[in-house]
Each structure stands twice: as structure tokens, then as C-alpha cells.
């Protein structure tokens, strides 16, 4: 028998210095508790490890921009829906309101309600395949953006959460500034 003694260790555990793809980097600080980590914080995965203060600031700005993207996609969905309905009304000869007939007589209110119900039933619109595909892509964009924001939020990093809140506030202010309908403002004078 050969009784040679090897100089190599015979343990099955790997040498800690051998296979370190990120050996020159600091370890990721990914916490599931509330934290205010900046440098060495990891978001979503190891590839998104913050290595400097400037990179963390860019992450916060990027998070704000993601919330803007979410509101942008929501706004584009509303605008596109209005666009395809308007296009449908042009193709079919106008909206139901422009074709409304003035009713005179004793049962005016009942007949108006009946006419409104009939118009509502007659003027439902179902988008075409291409239109629905665009609507679906806009919805997918919203879901993906919201999911990334959720993954960032579960880092429980205070700065990232503040960035999400600030971005939500500013993006809603920018993209959802619509005219609010006032009840009774469109009633015809009798």
C-alpha cells in the first residue's frame, strides 16, 4: 500500500476563497426588516447591489421614475380607451347624446329613462383584436411596473419607500389632473 500523505485538505467543503464571483465586492445587505441601508444594499437581486452613494441616489431617482411610468401607463390606457370609443362614434355616425330626440308629453320622464336604457344597450362597444391587443399591452406594462415597485418596496428600505411615496404623489399630480364632472352641471334648463 502506498502511504503517501497529501498536502491538500481532504474535506468536502469548498475553500471560501475559491468560487467567489463577487469576491471584490462587499456582501449584499438585503434585510426583511425596516432599514436605512444605503451602500452595499441589494434590491431584487445581487446584480442590483448599491456600491456608492451616487448609485443609491440613482436608485432612488429610478424608483421615482418607475412610479411615473406606472401612472403614465394608466393615463395612456384611459386616453387610448377614449380614442377608440371616439373613433367608433365617428364610424357609426355620432354619439347617443347627439341623436337624442326631445320628448314632449305627459310621460316625458319615464320615456327619457327608457330611451336612455335603450341607448345604453344599443351603443356598447367591443374593441377589435388589434385594439384589444394594444389595451392588453398597456395593462401588461402596468402590471410589470407595479410588480417591480412591489419588489422594491419589500426591501423595507426607508429611502426606497419614501421614493415610491414621493413618486406616487408627483406622478398622480402630473398624470391624473382631469376635469372632475359636477353632478347636475349638464342638465338642460326646463
From TrEMBL:
Transmembrane segments: 53-73
Single GO molecular function: copper ion transmembrane transporter activity
Region (Disordered): 90-121
CC per GO annotation: membrane
Primary localisation category: membrane
Highest taxon, organism lineage: Eukaryota
Cell compartments where the protein resides: Membrane
Keyword set, alphabetical order: Copper, Copper transport, Ion transport, Membrane, Transmembrane, Transmembrane helix, Transport
Record has Cytoplasm as a keyword: no
Membrane topology, as annotated: Multi-pass membrane protein
Entry keyword Methyltransferase: no
Recorded family membership: Belongs to the copper transporter (Ctr) (TC 1.A.56) family. SLC31A subfamily.
Protein name, per record: Copper transport protein
Species whose genome carries this gene: Cladorrhinum samala
